[in-house]
Amino acid sequence: MSKVRVLVGTRKGAFVLTADAGRERWDISGPHLAGWEIYHLNGSPVNPDRLYASQTSGWFGQVIQRSNDGGKTWEPVGNKFVYEGTPGTHQWYDGSQRSWEFKRVWKLEPSLTDPETVYAGVEDAALFRSSDGGQSWQELSSLRSVKGELWAPGAGGMCLHTIIQDPGNPKRIFTAISAAGTFRTDDGGQTWRAVNHGLQSNYELPDPSAEVGHCVHCIAMHPSHPDVLFMQKHWDVMRTDDAGESWHEVSGNLPTDFGYTIAVHSHEPETIYIVPIKSDSEHYPPDGMLRVYRSRTGGNEWEALTKGLPQSNCYVNVLRSAMAVDTLDPCGVYFGTTGGQVYASADSGDSWAPLARDFPPVLSIEVQTLP
Amino acid sequence: MIRVVLPMQLCNLANVSREVELQVNGPATISDVLDALENRCPVLRGTIRDQVTLQRRPFIRYFACGEDLSQEPASNPLSEEVASGMEPLRVVGAMAGG
Fold first, then answer.
1. pLDDT at position B97, please?
2. pTM value?
3. Cross-chain CB nearest to B46 (options A34, A36, A61)
4. Complex prediction ipTM
């Protein structure tokens, strides 16, 4: 019988939640790596018991941990992230130039084919790859040559937060950076180009349709439709049908098109999920009602999913990496909040229940569907 | 034998007790002590000082004999009390909440 394992990264450690395919009774283990910020933990699709975790601290810097038993035990691996060559400069908040400086790993994305290969998206924004299970890291540095001097940090820092591998084309990888935009390689990371045509940042950029500089919060892909990507931008929910060559807005009837996270249903490539957030400064759900919005039409037409979610006095946020889906039928959807709740739906979002109510603020959620 | 007291987070990370004893030859400096510490506990590389520049991380401080050595050059010789093990070198996480 299949099992589900939910990997939760929080401000004070990692938690691993497991259940059988019924998804009714959950076991919780953790906190693992307690007291540290776990920005992300993720499992290898090839060897699901091989997990990688980004353990980080403002005091003590970056540690990468690896598990070979599904998160029961952990061992530290390499944490030396050195930019290739002279790091150069990027734009600071006030438009001045500032040197690239490594701060932390936001995203760990294991290879689709090799458990020893894993990608790391870091702040200040860059992409690294390890081919030895995380022991050593090399930058794919040409990414930063795509007008890196014009990239700038968002409120959370200048982070490379999304890495998506094309399952049908091992040479193609998408990355997303806040605030720079979306980038694509078609040659395994040797060369990159910006794929932001169609994005409009009317309040954030002097040229609203600039080639780079957009505050992309998250992008998502269904593996069966690798040319279709969905994006939650700082403002606007966007979609591309040609692998990023052109984007168009699909915000439709959303109460607000600001938000952080976005996910695609595991069996319905045109069903997508977001959590609208009030902005520019509040960053909590509109009207104190925590609502996931689902579109079954690939955008534009959205319905609020509220059953089981707090519909009054709720002022949490759902961060960019904090929503994921399982591959069971019906599809399970999971998200975590800055209030420490982890909510799950075992019926594609129709109804929700908390798996945890009192975790530290949730930074990331990943879900593994195990045989 | 030089005694180094570590923050609890780093003790847990390196799986060592709060106080670590290290053999450092010659007139010991903070750099020498950290070299010896990192050789014994490689997981601590990058957690106290930058792995490339060897600069102290911004939220780390060094105390010994009631004095703050954080701003001293890391190549300065440590006092006889620290070098002899009579007093520990304390590696401290700055007070900054969290």
1. 64
2. 0.96
3. A61
4. 0.93
